[in-house]
Automatic annotation (TrEMBL):
Gene source species: Thermoplasma volcanium (strain ATCC 51530 / DSM 4299 / JCM 9571 / NBRC 15438 / GSS1)
Single GO molecular function: GTP binding
Protein name (record): Hypothetical membrane protein
Source taxonomy: Archaea, Methanobacteriati, Thermoplasmatota, Thermoplasmata, Thermoplasmatales
Domain of life assignment: Archaea
Keyword terms: GTP-binding, Hydrolase, Nucleotide-binding
UniProt keyword Hydrolase, yes or no: yes
Length: 257
């Protein structure tokens, strides 16, 4: 495997759609790519997984075996994933020159905030791991929404401590101008703070300015990757960053041809 991208983020932001679209894009560019579905609770996937955790973990089975409701059983299911990392390794060991995309459970807390998740990542791909954090563009193109997403992004970073990308997905639902504004906020904490004050009206304190400046200092605010998974837009940048990290950019020639 060349490297593995774990796709994380809150429910409904488009993790599964992004995963499918990225694999499709990579294959269109004639790279080998595979998808692992790690969401035991997925009813429907917008792609054909190459490895599917649902073959090993059944939510219905857990509900009846442990006498649990749907929420409890989602948590047990998420905690069971680690028991199948050997199976996943067996699968990935066959994939020599592949980019691997891992779609994670619907709700962010079921993967990112469970104790086993960092161990799962280490066992599957160790140093060859990157994390994409998927934010929903309509929820992140106003100041308080963007700050909330950045805090979640920072909490994902604190858990995995791997290279990350802040993906602004569903940009087909917002204006180009909104995307440009988000890019400016990412570069300039003062601008974001001013926009936040404009949004909230009469606030006397700079509630978040220190935090935003610290995010900037600590590389938690660096770059936004605007994407539409629906329209297959923005994946060149995602790929370039993956390739830069995993191969030092040597694949770029192939891509530019
Ligand atoms: N308009 C638009 N909708 C999207 C995009 N990506 C995902 N969606 C929709 O968002 C909803 C949730 O997507 P899904 O991939 O299941 O989210 P997940 O829960 O994070 O895996 C679905 O209805 C998708 O069709 C996008 O780029 N543009
Ligand atoms: Mg999903």
């Amino acid at each position: 495997m060349i490297g593995t991208l774990y796709v994380t983020g809150p429910a409904g932001t488009g993790k599964s759609t992004f995963s499918g679209a990225l694999k499709e894009w990579l294959q269109r560019m004639e790279f080998d790519a595979a998808i692992i579905n790690l969401d035991p609770g997925a009813d429907y996937l917008p792609y054909e997984p190459d490895f599917d955790i649902r073959e090993y973990i059944s939510l219905e089975g857990i509900m009846s075996d442990y006498n649990l409701g749907p929420n409890g059983s989602q948590i047990v299911a998420a905690d069971m994933i680690i028991n199948f990392t050997d199976k996943i390794k067996e699968f990935t060991d066959e994939l020599q020159d592949y980019y691997l995309v891992v779609d994670t459970p619907g709700q962010i807390e079921l993967f990112t905030f469970r104790t086993s998740s960092t161990e799962i990542v280490d066992r599957i791909s160790g140093e060859k791991s990157m994390i994409a954090y998927i934010a929903d563009a309509p929820l992140a193109t106003y100041p308080s929404g963007f700050i909330a997403q950045k805090m979640l992004y920072a909490s994902v970073f604190s858990r995995f401590f791997k290279p990350m990308m802040f993906v602004l997905n569903k940009i087909d639902l917002v204006s180009d101008e909104d995307v440009e504004t988000v890019k400016k906020w990412e570069r300039d904490p003062d601008l974001l703070n001013e926009a936040f004050i404009d949004e909230k009206g009469n606030i006397e304190k700079d509630y978040f300015l220190n935090l935003l400046e610290a995010f900037k200092e600590s590389n938690i605010m660096t770059k936004v990757y605007p994407v539409s998974s629906r329209d297959s837009f923005g994946f060149e940048d995602i790929y370039s960053n993956m390739s830069m990290f995993f191969t030092g950019g040597e694949d770029n020639d192939t891509y530019n041809e």
